[in-house]
Amino acid sequence: MVSPNGGTPQTPTRVLVVDDEPQIVRALVISLKARGYEADAASDGRSALELAASRRPDVVVLDLGLPDMDGIDVIRGLRGWTRVPILVLSARHSSKEKVQALDAGADDYVTKPFGMDELLARLRAAVRRAEPVGPAEDDLRVVETEGFTVDLAAKRVSRAGRDVRLTPTEWHLLEVLVRNTGRLVGQKQLLQEVWGPSYGTETNYLRVYMAQLRRKLETDPSHPKHFVTEPGMGYRFEK
Known about the structure:
Elements: E1 14-18, H1 22-34, E2 38-42, H2 45-55, E3 59-62, H3 71-79, E4 86-90, H4 95-104, E5 108-111, H5 116-130, E6 142-144, E7 148-151, E8 156-159, E9 162-163, H6 168-179, E10 185-186, H7 187-194, H8 203-217, E11 227-230, E12 234-237
Parallel strand pairs: 1-2, 1-3, 3-4, 4-5
Antiparallel strand pairs: 6-7, 7-8, 8-9, 10-12, 11-12
């Protein structure tokens, strides 16, 4: 994969660009290939889902305004079988629509018009979040609660004996909290560790993803026992 510093990759990261505006697709593909990525392109949702299945991209850059289906439906279609990072690129600016995309399973959201450098930085961050971390001594930890088990080394979560599917961003957020069990992790720290150093105020991201983790892992998501909110400060994981 492409290294975080933008160096030449040994195994090129494959990007699927989904947008019906030819000029945006052309600019993205040229920029990506110039930086050592491989790039495929689709101009509608159906083609995007077919290409994702056949080409198995490492990250998807997705416009929501597609001619044949809404991009939200593409996100849901992908999330039915893959945890590939999804970076939304859209002219929709409202918080409601951003939250809807994140709630459907997107990992980040960039509004049009956009700066190419910022988009590529966010793309690199999304790829890094999805990459396996090299083994370290504490990666061998298995954290057990009464309702679910987190295997940090295998990057697996199980509940009642069955694996729980998490997106790369959901996993990264869970991992940061679990590694700080019992300690308050501030909102800014969480945003920067999970989304990157340019983040710090997008607390709606945290609300969306914490809600998703609670739905998937808490026995009673409306009264969370393990993913605790400290209002105005941050979050804490309790076993």
